[in-house]
Amino acid sequence: MMLFVSTALLPVTMLKSPQDFWWAVVTAMITTAISVMLILIGTWLDYEYCAPVAEYPAYQFDHLLLSLGIFMFSFGGHSVFPTIQHDMKHPQHFTKSSILAFVVVFIMYIPITVLGYMVYGDSLKDSIIMSIQSSYIQQAANLFIAVHCILTLTIVINPLNQEIEHMLKIPHHFGWKRILLRSSTLLAIVFSAETVPSFGPILNLIGGTTVAFTSAIMPCLFYLYLHAQEKRVNEKIRKGVHSKHRIPTFNQILERTPPLVLGINIFVIVVAVICGIATTQSAVVELATSSFSVPCYLSSSSPNNQDSVSHAVHCCGHHQNVSRYGSSSFCPAIS
């Protein structure tokens, strides 16, 4: 199935930049909103049966660190932002659009997070969709999330392709070199997905390492350096002196950045570094104790893979033996 989807997606990845497939961005946003609504409806329908028997696990600090990695991954779209801003009709409005985007994402995340925890408690699965007991809502939500992921991949992979093309000096116009490079990139992604089908622990590791750098640390550093450089150039222009673009020193950044702005950026960097290190350490420990499924290209009949798809309903309650259908025979934990 993954090979079929990637083959169908390949022609879209050949487009030059996001301005050529803006429709994918809009469609991904719509499918996400629909999926969020379906998840909320499905969770609310389970409230009557699952909330009374829900138990909540005791607080553990290492679990908090792992959750920080997931949170960073959820808001880790910064690597795509420069490309999006470059292709905007009015790039000067990027700040407004990014703030609006993060607010909308936050508004969609919070209800699902709170309601899902209240309803399912410690029976909540890695994906809340798997905890929903209405099979129709579960399948519909999975369908829209799948469409969202497929379309989002075309957006996320584009800056990577452009960066590699720039490094290898591949022409910007369409040609065989672009086809070869972008096909190889997509093939590498498919191979990674097939090799690690259960990506929960990997998600925590990536969130604590690369996403922490690209979404928190590096953007703050870039802003401080660019702000100091811009202020230096403006000062030279007012004096009528031609100025060459030079990277500001650390002392120049301290001198030219307002104390409040400097303090906020330093705070974000310090918190990101501490949380990133702690999350990475916890993720490595979790990886060492996790069991992974055998890739499909090595074993197409793994018992673990068969068990993972044989049950569509995941019951709630501490022992996962409560079903909204009244019979515990639907519950894989005791069937």
TrEMBL record:
One GO cellular component term: membrane
Residue ranges annotated for the Amino acid transporter transmembrane domain, each copy included: 1-238
Domain of life (superkingdom): Eukaryota
Location relative to the cell: Membrane
UniProt KW Glycosyltransferase keyword: no
Keywords: Membrane, Transmembrane, Transmembrane helix, Transport
Transmembrane intervals: 21-44, 64-85, 97-120, 140-158, 179-196, 202-226, 260-279
Alphabetical list of InterPro entries matching this protein: AA_transpt_TM
Protein name (Swiss-Prot/TrEMBL): Amino acid transporter transmembrane domain-containing protein
Species this chain originates from: Ditylenchus dipsaci
